């Protein structure tokens, strides 16, 4: 359930898109099950915290966008990407709680997988663009004396459009290749007849020629799984990591000189914004690195580039649900990191919440007053009707 996510079902049941398949008869996977209670609980908590936090980030941005620097539009883009994914977390939580049984049908399987991949690519591209933009500003303003994007808001809009279009194109395999398939689980004992689950998984059969023999088809599907999995790791993780490292290593040599000049409030604002971005970048890579390492080693093991080992195979399989959970938590962490690193964001959040509370209070008072008025009017009408016969 990552960018090219795959289903966690023990390997003796069926090979999945990026889990090792050699020598299955020599390994015992019966005891390798994830926690079907802890992981769904974490998903639900991440959904609640993440939706509230990222909605607040977008509300703050929309309320203050005229006064915020252009980099905050990319931070809003990051919040939107997280929200697109977070709405699918209840589905993934249910899927996990039911022992990786997908009861929601194929369309939701495809859409949820697409939004998961879209979140990963849109998030990392937004962070990469933020890093390049900060490098451009803090190195280029020494010569140009102005912010390159502030004077050209349309350029920021085009950058955002490009980020989302590229992310959507790269996420298409999750939409086009996902399918819901029946999977027969091996019986746990002689008296157990076994069971069948509906698995939301990648289906590479449409990429493989129908004229191939069964063994060749299986091998071709393995290679397609490897190509798409490595694509997501290279484009969605390693390449952005290299870009950001280059930007921040270069900036580290210029920070003291750059922040030593100019008005003090401007220097303070630049430091604060840079601290927020560096914190977001660090959190993203710490959350997503274990999953990408797990996927890459699994692919190399499956293709034979790493000597096959049952213990390594079992460790990768056992760790996968938890490193996936860690990657998903990144979507609810970002608003908390904004609040921890940026005092101005906390002030804007407080102002936004007070405004919302004030509006809700006024609406509630209007409703109560209206209700009270209607009751008084009704009571007056009843009283008049009761008094009418006496007056006659």
TrEMBL record:
The protein's location, in the record's own words, is: Cell membrane; Membrane
Q: What does UniProt give as the signal peptide span? A: none
GO molecular-function annotation terms? Answer: C-C chemokine binding; C-C chemokine receptor activity
Q: Which domain of life does the UniProt lineage start with?
A: Eukaryota
Start and end residues of each G-protein coupled receptors family 1 profile domain: 53-338
Query: Gene3D superfamilies this protein is in?
Result: Rhodopsin 7-helix transmembrane proteins (1.20.1070.10)
PROSITE patterns according to UniProt:
G_PROTEIN_RECEP_F1_1, G_PROTEIN_RECEP_F1_2
Tell me the Gene Ontology biological-process terms attached to this UniProt entry.
angiogenesis; calcium-mediated signaling; gastrulation; immune response; neutrophil chemotaxis; positive regulation of cytosolic calcium ion concentration
One term under GO cellular component? external side of plasma membrane
Which SUPFAM superfamilies does the entry link to?
Answer: Family A G protein-coupled receptor-like (SSF81321)
Q: What is this protein called?
A: G-protein coupled receptors family 1 profile domain-containing protein
Q: Which UniProt keywords apply?
A: Angiogenesis, Cell membrane, Developmental protein, Disulfide bond, G-protein coupled receptor, Gastrulation, Glycoprotein, Membrane, Receptor, Transducer, Transmembrane, Transmembrane helix
The family annotation for this protein states: Belongs to the G-protein coupled receptor 1 family.
The protein's topology relative to the membrane is: Multi-pass membrane protein
- Its transmembrane ranges are 38-62, 74-93, 113-136, 157-177, 233-252, 273-291
Q: Which InterPro entries match?
A: ATII_rcpt (IPR000248), CCR1-9-like (IPR050119), GPCR_Rhodpsn (IPR000276), GPCR_Rhodpsn_7TM (IPR017452)
What organism is this sequence from? Xiphophorus couchianus (Monterrey platyfish)
């Amino acid at each position: 359930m990552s960018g090219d996510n795959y289903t966690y079902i023990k390997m003796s049941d069926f090979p999945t898109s990026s889990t090792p398949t050699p020598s299955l008869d020599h390994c015992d996977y019966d005891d390798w099950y994830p926690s079907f209670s802890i992981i769904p609980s974490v998903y639900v908590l991440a959904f609640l915290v993440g939706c509230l936090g990222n909605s607040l980030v977008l509300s703050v941005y929309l309320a203050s966008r005229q006064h915020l620097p252009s980099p905050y539009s990319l931070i809003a883009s990051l919040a939107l990407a997280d929200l697109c994914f977070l709405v699918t977390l209840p589905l993934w939580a249910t899927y996990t709680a039911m022992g990786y049984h997908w009861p929601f049908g194929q369309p939701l399987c495809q859409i949820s997988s697409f939004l998961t991949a879209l979140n990963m690519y849109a998030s990392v591209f937004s962070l990469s663009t933020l890093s390049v933009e900060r490098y451009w500003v803090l190195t280029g303003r020494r010569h140009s004396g102005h912010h390159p994007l502030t004077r050209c808001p349309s350029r920021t809009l085009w950058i955002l459009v490009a980020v989302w279009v590229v992310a959507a194109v790269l996420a298409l395999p999750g939409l086009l290749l996902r399918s819901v398939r029946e999977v027969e689980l091996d019986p746990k004992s002689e008296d157990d007849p076994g069971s069948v689950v509906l698995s939301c998984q990648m289906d590479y059969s449409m990429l493989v020629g129908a004229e191939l023999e069964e063994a060749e088809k299986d091998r071709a599907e393995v290679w397609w799984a490897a190509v798409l999995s490595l694509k997501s790791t290279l484009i969605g993780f390693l390449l952005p990591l290299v870009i950001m490292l280059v930007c921040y290593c270069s900036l580290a040599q210029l920070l003291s000189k750059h922040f030593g000049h100019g008005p003090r409030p401007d220097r303070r604002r630049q430091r604060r914004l840079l601290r927020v971005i560096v914190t977001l970048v660090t959190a993203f890579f710490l959350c997503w690195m274990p999953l990408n390492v797990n996927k890459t080693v699994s692919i190399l093991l499956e293709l034979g580039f790493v000597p096959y080992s049952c213990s390594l195979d079992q460790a990768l399989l056992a760790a996968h649900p938890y490193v996936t959970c860690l990657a998903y938590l990144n979507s609810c962490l970002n608003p908390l990191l904004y609040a921890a690193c940026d005092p101005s964001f906390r002030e804007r959040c407080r102002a936004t919440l007070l405004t919302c509370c004030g509006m809700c209070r006024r609406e509630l008072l209007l409703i109560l007053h209206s209700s009270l008025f209607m009751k008084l009017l009704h009571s007056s009408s009843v009283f008049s009707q009761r008094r009418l016969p006496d007056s006659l």
